[in-house]
Amino acid sequence: MSLATICDALAAISVTANGVTPTAYSYDELKNSYDKADLPARLIMPFGDRAEGALNAITIAGNAQAVWTLTDLLLWDTIGQGRGLPDMYPALVAYIDAYTAAVKSHFRLIKTPAATIENVRFSPGSWTFGDKTYWGVECRLTIREIG
User: Fold this and answer.
1) Domain boundaries in the chain?
2) H or E element in which residue 104 lies
3) Which of 123 and 56 is assigned the larger pLDDT?
4) pLDDT in the model for residue 52
5) pTM exceeds 0.70, yes or no
6) CA-CA distance, 139 to 119, in Å (whole number)?
7) CA torsion angle for 53, 59, 65, 68 (degrees, to 10)?
8) Domain 3-146 has CATH 3.30.2000
């Protein structure tokens, strides 16, 4: 299985919060920046500023395992609209809840060969991507691929 396949499978998971489903952009669809009309957006990044697409290949009982750390960065809204992080809390908390539910129902990201989502760490706050800063949530995922 390839890193591209894992990124595309992650982008295919739909996450809806407060009636809004952010558009997911896999690594090969990313733009240099996102305008307000593009938001909310999910950016699947295998490596770069925030995540190392670290491949840790381990051989255990003849099975090759790869452990990937990927970033799924939500850009919810641009900063500078007269709102602070407390104003964003309801939307960001709803998104984290929706993301958690989506990951639980898709924890087995790819069935054959097996790739499972083992861990997700959420970091809500302000994120700079390209030349703009956004309110959003960084979701760092650990994905284990077996065989």
Assistant:
1) 3-146
2) helix 85-105
3) 123
4) 47
5) yes
6) 10
7) -20
8) yes
Q: How far apart are CA 56 and CA 67, in angstroms?
A: 5
**Residue 76: both structure tokens together:** 């919810």
- Please say whether the beta carbons of 24 and 11 come within 8 A: yes
Beta strands at 115-129 and 63-78: parallel, antiparallel or unpaired: unpaired
Q: Are the C-beta atoms of residues 83 and 90 closer than 8 Å to each other?
A: no
At 66-96, the pLDDT tens digits run: 788 889 999 999 998 667 778 888 999 999 9
Q: Per residue in 37-50, is it b (16+ CB within 10 Å) or e — as a string?
A: eebbbbbbbbeeee
Higher pLDDT, 82 or 116: 116
* Residue spans of beta strands (DSSP E) within the chain: 23-25, 41-45, 56-60, 63-78, 108-110, 115-129, 132-146
As a whole number of angstroms, the distance between CA 63 and CA 47 comes to 25
| Residue 11 CB neighbours (<10 A) | 19
SS3 124: strand
Neighbours of 135 (CB within 10 A): 25
Is 7 buried (19+), middle (13-18) or exposed (0-12) by CB count in 10 A?
buried
